[in-house]
Amino acid sequence: MPDYRVIDAFTDRPLAGNPAAVLVLEDAYDDAWAQGVAAEFNLSETAFARPVDDPGADYELRWFTPTVEIDLCGHATLATAHALVELGVPGPYRFTTRSGLLTVAERDGRLWMDFPAKPPVPVAAPDGLAEALGTEPLWVGLGGADDLLVEVADEATVRGLEPDIAALGRLPYHLVIPTARAEEGVDFVSRVFAPRVGIAEDPVTGRAHTVLAPFWAERLGRKELSAHQASARGGDLLLEWRGDRVLIGGHAVSVARGELNL
Catalytic positions, please? Predict the structure, then answer.
């Protein structure tokens, strides 16, 4: 019977950041079983890692929301690396994924993920966006094919958003990412809504910061940034934009361990 861990990512204290379930498995598994396990945990993502015989990678890594498998997830990748640290597996960790090779390494007391950057390209605001978010966008851009970045007036606007989740779910985007420059403490704040993949609001989202990092690096004129995702749980990230890659640094904390009776 497989073991699991629930790990809070992008936080140095329990019951904050973004929780992910992590299963480090030895053998192949059935896709339908993995989707069922993710639905049972009912967290924004459940990560499944297993060793692979590959000179370029150590583990296969896949991520499932309660309803679908996704191509890229930051917090569950960070949580998986943290689980491997606790299991005594030496890093750095090389994962083969739907988004190519991803690596995670320890540096300065944090785990740092190396992800592909997705600089947002400006687009016209889609019909219904302002009404769905409850505020007028200042700037709208598309990161990759699926993630919509929306700059809004200020930090207070980001924090105070009460969007129409059903209306956001009708927009054709994986993530909707409202953001603004922070007033103090960090460089910028954001929130992330993803109802199209079964997540009303994601607490802390590494994937979103592959879009946010290049956007704010260009706005602020520097490539090293600090960020806060202003969900109810909240989470903190350090970022380094390196052209076609983004390094995302954060802490993680294990909050539960157990065994599946499956």
Answer: 45
